[in-house]
Amino acid sequence: MDRVPVEVWLETFSILNKRTLFSVHRVSRPLHRIARLLLFKHFTFYPYAALGSHVILPGDIHLPGETEVKRIVRRLRFWTSDEVAPLVKECTVAPRLILYEELKLGRYVHCQNYDVILHTFLELLPRFTNLGKLSSTSIKFRQHFLDALGSLPNLRKIELQKCSLDESVMVRTQLKAVRLLVANTNDLVGVQKWLSIIGLQVRTQLSVQPPYAVPALDFMDGDIPVFPNVMTLEIRIHTLTQDVIALQRFPAVRTLRRRMGFPYNMRPNP
């Protein structure tokens, strides 16, 4: 087994489902060490539950009962332990979508302070020292969340779906992510602030996908003169006049993708 590179084993194990991977995990110590790199690569965290899947309002947010909250916190502490936390490369944070019938069974209760579990997560988030990608859906980012992201030295990709940004947040540390995706949000100010949170000199991939009726370039603050290093750009273009002129702010772009369209290869600048 020692003659086979770890990368080959990882590629082989990557096609296995999680149950089979757990079985491999128990076979021998060498396989245990390799399989755990995949078992703990991605961490999914549900800070609360919510009704619906389109627009989530504060009244739709619920917490599970006390016993379940304790179980969630125990799971979180396991994933952020010294043995597991360094293995986590990707993290997804989103509400657990529930049905109204589950509320009638008393499994979840409406709570004003629905960030109680999220606070514990943010306190432990800096332990994911090798985290490279954060994906989030229907989460409101407040100051403590941004501060926690700023403590992650290897965070390079941020993907946000239907998320919002609290108006009072301050940009204390510029993130060094090379890819930013912001999709399905009407939060114009929030998108502009995200563009300022991630350093212009670092970002090489940018995707802004607003609701259908809103051109993506409307979300980009005109005070930012140029995006010097963006090489891959994904946006929604509505007009061929103002939008194309605005694309001059992306001099390094090599690939342009329209939402619901095909990629366009850009010739290098002379």
Automatic annotation (TrEMBL):
It comes from the Eukaryota. PROSITE patterns: FBOX (PS50181). Residues 1-43 form the F-box domain. This is F-box domain-containing protein.
